[in-house]
Every structure is written in C-alpha cells, then in structure tokens.
Specification:
The complex is a heterodimer of chains A (497) and B (120).
Chain A: H1 2-15, H2 26-31, E1 41-46, H3 52-61, E2 69-73, H4 78-87, E3 96-99, H5 118-137, E4 141-145, H6 157-173, E5 177-182, H7 191-196, E6 199-206, E7 209-217, E8 227-232, E9 235-239, E10 255-256, H8 261-266, E11 271-272, E12 276-281, H9 287-300, E13 304-309, H10 314-323, H11 329-334, E14 337-341, H12 349-362, E15 365-371, H13 373-380, H14 385-398, E16 402-408, E17 429-438, E18 441-451, E19 461-466, E20 469-475, E21 479-480, E22 488-489
Chain B: E1 5-9, H1 13-25, E2 29-33, H2 36-44, E3 49-55, H3 62-72, E4 77-81, H4 86-94, E5 99-102, H5 107-119
Helix pairs in contact in B: 2-3
Classes of the chains: A alpha/beta (497), B alpha/beta (120).
Amino acid sequence: MAQEETELQIKTQEEAEPQRISSGVAELDEILEGGFIPQGAYLVRGGPGTGKTLLGLHFLRGATEPRKALLVTLSEPEGKLRKNAAKVGLDLTGVEVLDLGPTADLFAENRHYDIFSPEEVERGPITEQIVAKVETLRPERVLIDGLTHLRYLATDEQEFRRQALSLLRFLTESGATVLFTSEYGPQAPDQDLQFLSDGILELVNTPQGRTLSITKFRGSDFRPGLHGLRLSRAGMEVFPRLLPEAHGKIYPEETISSGVAGLDRLLHGGLECGTVTLVTGPVGVGKTTLGLQFAKEAATRGERSVAYLFEEAAETVVHRSESIGTSMRAMLEQGTLALVPVEALRLTADQFAVAVRREVEEHAAQIVMIDSVAGYRLALRGEDLVSHLHALTRYLRNMGVTTILVNETEYVTGDFRATENGISYLADNIVFLRYLEIDGQLRKALGVLKKRVSDFEKTLRQLEITSQGVQVGEPLTGLRGVLRGTPEWVGPPEGRR
Amino acid sequence: MTGPLILAVDHNERNLELLARFLQQAGYQSLGIASLVALDRILLETLDIGLALVDISGFDRSVWERCRKLSERGIPLLVISPRESAAIRQDGFSSGARSVLTKPLVAKELIRTIQSLVEG
C-alpha cells in the first residue's frame, strides 16, 4: 500500500505544471496562458518590420539577470541591435550578443571566395562559436535573430533543416528557452522551421492595424484569434482579443436610478446592474445628457462612471451640463466621473477593449457609457461591429457593469425606427427619444421599447431639457400617431400643455 | 610528416587560403600560386610536386600552356572550372588533366580525388 502511494506521489510531481517562462510582455503571457514552456524552441515569424526582433528583445529582458540572456544575431550587426533596443527603452547592458552576421569586408575583393560553398566554409566556425558561448554562459534565454539566414549557408534544404534542428536541440538541452525569428516570403518559405518549433507566433502588419496570433503551442492552451499589437517608442504592446467568458464577478442585483422621477417610472425603477441599455434617437435630442443622468446619480453614491466620447470633446459635454444646472467639475475631480475622448481613427477595437478592462478591473467603474456606437464602429476600421460590440458588452455584463450605448438614428422625424445597425438585440433595454411636432413647436418625447429584467411603462412621456435640468413629464396619453412623428390630440385635454 | 606537396593555382587569394586550410586538414602540404608569372618561376625550380590543382577562372588562354607543361613533367593535373562547359572539359583533357572539377567544390570529393591521383 505504501509503495503504491509513493508511486502516485512521484507521478503527480512529474505531471505538475512546470513554471512558465514569461515572454517579457505581460499581455502576451495572458495569451499564452502563463508564458512559454521552459526549454522549448519558439518561432516568431512575420514579414519585414512586423516586430519580430522587438518581441525577441522583450523576451531577453525578461531574464532573471542580463547575464543569463544570449542574443545570437545572424543578420543585423550588434551595434545596430543595441541602438534600436535603447530607442524603445529596452536596456541590453549585460546581455551577451554573439554577432555571426556577414561582416562588411566579405564584400571586399580579397575576402570573397568561390572555391567551396559557404556552408562548408562558414558552418564550422558558426556552430563552434555558438557552442563555445553557450557552454561558458549557460543562458536561460536565447534569441536567434534571423535564423533563416543560415539557409543561405546550407547546400540544400535537407542540410539546413538538419542543422537548424540540431542547433535548437543543443540549445534547449543545455537548459535554455529559445526564440528564433524567421522572415519568410514566396521565395523563402519556412515550412521546415514551423515543423521544428514547439510553438509559432505570427506577426502581421495590415492597413487595419498590426496583429499577433498564436498558430501553434505544443503542450498548452492559448487564446486563439488575432490580437492587437502596437509598436511604439515604449516598445511592444499587446492587446489581447477580449474573451468575455474568461471574466466574471459576483455582483449585487441592484437597480440604478436616474435621479429623474418620470424616467425611473418609465423604467419601473431604473437600470439594473449588469445590463446593457441602448439610448437611441436623432441628433441633438438629448441622448448623451440622459445617459449622464445615471452617472450623476451614481456619483452621489460614490460610484465611478466612465463615458467614452467618440464624437464630442470633454469640454463641450461639461459646458452643456453646466448650462442645464449640473456641475461636472466636482465629479471629475473626485474621480466619480471620467470623460474620455476617443480618437476613433487612432485606436483599434482591441486597444479600446483593453482600456475598458482597465477601467473596470483597476478603477472599479460601475457605469460605462459609449457615445456613440457610430464612433465605435469607425474604430473597427471595417471589422464586424456586431461581434466586437457583442464581446465587449458580454464582458461588461459578466463584470456587473451597467452599460449605456448611445445610438444616433438618421431620421429626425417620420416613421419610427429604433436602430439601423442590427444591434438592438445586444441591448437588454432600449430607451428611445424622438422629436414631436406639437402645435407648431418642436418637442421631445421618450419611451421604453424593451426591458429585459423588469416590466416597464408602455407610455410616452414628454422630455424637457432646460436650465433647471432634465425633466420628464406625465404620460402623453392624449396623443395619437406619435410614432409617426405627427401626433394629434384626441380625447380629454388633460394631456395638453 | 612530409606528405606530397600540392601545388594550388588560383587567381583568388581567399580561395588559396581556403584550399590550403582544407588540404592541411587532410594532411597535405600545399603551395599557393596566384599568378601565371609566379607559376612560371615555380616551373623553373626543381620541386617535388605531388599534384597540381589549377583553377582556370580569371586567367586567359595561356593557362592551358602551363597546364600542358605540368602534365609533361608527370605531375598529376586537376583542372578546376568555374562552370560546367564542354569546351573547358575538352581543353582540360587536351592539356593532360586527369580530371576536371566544377566549382563550388565539395571538400570531401576533392580530397578523395586527390588521394586517388596521388597514390596512383
């Protein structure tokens, strides 16, 4: 019996997860479910300028001490690599660099040769240098930048594959985790390197933006799909595609009041935590103002709201609020309200999702407002609006955040249409606003079309936004043909103003 | 160890360096010549040459004359050509070459050819 127990213990120890090796970029580790598996050889492939070397540099910087990292460069000279690293704030001091690239004097007449093939002449020296370096240094992380250049030294594909495999084996068996980069093209396919690797990271640069994806990862799960990537003076930033299922939180079943009695009555209390509300209506009718009412109320309870402004400047919104008697400055200072202007053309949907996550997870935002859906769609640059919004709103729901989506409809008057985007199914609640022409005057009305968690009032009420603030009047029961845009009074005149 | 002396004639200095390296690894002494003028001087001396390797690239047609002179002396001649060419092969064999090899050479094959020619 004791014998069996010990055997079982040993087995569990062997199967226990080895400590992952960080990629050097926190969000990439998330995508890799912790990081690389130790002593694996990972291929980073992509066209020129996609950030392969940069990723490798981040990886080297992740070593416990610089001495334990080795950079083997087969094409770019050491000086250039160190300079480029310094430019993006990656300090390579202490990191050992082995420069095995062709030197400038190879081109000088007296160094050029043709009697034997380069593979016979260079291979020995290159392999010897690597072996010698690794034996003295015993690095834990190795970056081989430009492994594909070894191909030019090989007499044929078979030879190259054999060499590359034996090099990678030597490195991993001596205890290192290896990243190697490959530049591929139609003239230089790298299928063989793909087969040799334990995992593949693919970097692509498209007009829609840069992406990173994992196309292979032996022995581990990984987050699939295309993730956002940005290369800047700060180095490489990764924006993992939002996986709503990966996030969740237990949250109280509370209803958030708007602070406006008539509106609360329409909603039978207010908006519930963890729901998505679409506030839809034509230009200038007061959607943003209405949405911000909830933020104002939440602020009095000390809860934080964040409004992402895709169209207006923060100052405009603050000024308009002041003109209707709400001072936002106090809320902004206390941190119960954040107005975040978003330049749609500069941000990708993945970057936006990461920003929202930070707000929710680090700053405890309870209400998130997206003003407007049209602006958000622009940020997607052609990608599917519905699937991105779906993922984002699902994440927010899982986290118990109350989401308000502002949607502008094109039709100012005339037959009623809630949305043109096909997004109304995403919303738990739909509040619509419209203009009415009554007795030659332009008035506003609002109503609720849908409310998932509770019942709602099926009438329309008049909306007035004055210097006294937002006021929602009594139900407009005396009107007919409201949704047509040209209402008529019928019945008793109590409803008339 | 005094093995046979191998005469290497090549217009490219770096080629000569590499030939010397590989020949030494195989146990042969070698002498590198980069010009036909230097070759003529060597032909005047009474050196015991075991084999001559002549890379004809970069030389003019007068290189074949020197090749004939080497073969007439009884020195096994190996001609190295820059490319596959029937004309070059013909010229080579007419000058008494035992074999015509095309660049780039495979080191192992070169050494094997030399071994068979020097022993024979």
